UniProtKB/TrEMBL annotation:
Listed HAMAP family: 23SrRNA_methyltr_H
Function: Specifically methylates the pseudouridine at position 1915 (m3Psi1915) in 23S rRNA.
Quaternary structure note: Homodimer.
Gene of this entry: rlmH
Enzyme class at the top of the EC tree: transferase
Organism, as annotated: Cribrihabitans marinus
Official protein name in the record: Ribosomal RNA large subunit methyltransferase H
Record field: catalytic activity: pseudouridine(1915) in 23S rRNA + S-adenosyl-L-methionine = N(3)-methylpseudouridine(1915) in 23S rRNA + S-adenosyl-L-homocysteine + H(+)
Length: 156
């Protein structure tokens, strides 16, 4: 199952990008034998100031056709890391070829797009900067792959 992290905004070179690249490389390496990955980041940017509505159109286009759509949203469902691993495994086992994980911009994700999602995943009720959400998500994907592989990285 290929994974697209569809995110608003351009991330320049720096510590967040280094971490994301590192975790996604590790995810790809661990996930290959599990039928997970590769993972990529697809960045969208609305330069015309169209707000959430315009961003939603760009995010929809960034997600592969037929992908499971999972928004990152503080109002969503908080899962443990093993629960996230199980969820990824279940989507993979259902034969879903693509998963799109959608991260909004400063104003969040358009309610219309939120309503279309198969799932909303929360990293807690606090609002995190969207660039940090990318880092945390990349780490959780790697962690999930190690859990499914039975590796020692995750400890309960
Ligand atoms: C700065 S936040 C925008 C928050 C905005 N108040 C909203 O209504 O969504 C930018 C993006 O980061 C992600 N995000 C921020 N905090 C999050 C959390 N606790 N759990 C999951 N995603 C989060 C969401 O995708 C959000 O659209």
């Amino acid at each position: 199952m290929r994974i697209s992290i569809c995110a608003v905004g351009r991330l320049r070179a720096g510590p967040e990008k280094t971490l994301i690249d590192d975790y996604l490389t590790r995810f790809d390496r661990t996930g290959r034998a599990l039928g997970l990955g590769p993972a990529r980041v697809v960045e969208v940017e609305d330069r015309k100031g169209g707000g959430m509505g315009a961003e939603a159109g760009l995010l929809r286009r960034a997600a592969p056709t037929g992908a499971v759509l999972c928004t990152l949203d503080e109002r969503g469902k908080a899962l443990s890391s093993p629960e996230l691993a199980q969820r990824l495994g279940a989507w993979r086992d259902q034969g879903r070829g693509d998963l799109a994980l959608v991260i909004g911009g400063a104003d969040g994700i358009d309610p219309g797009l939120r309503a279309e999602a198969d799932m909303a995943l929360s990293f807690g009720r606090m609002v995190w900067p969207h660039m940090l959400v990318r880092v945390m998500l990349a780490e959780q994907l790697y962690r999930a792959a190690t859990i499914l592989a039975g590796g020692p990285y995750h400890r309960d």
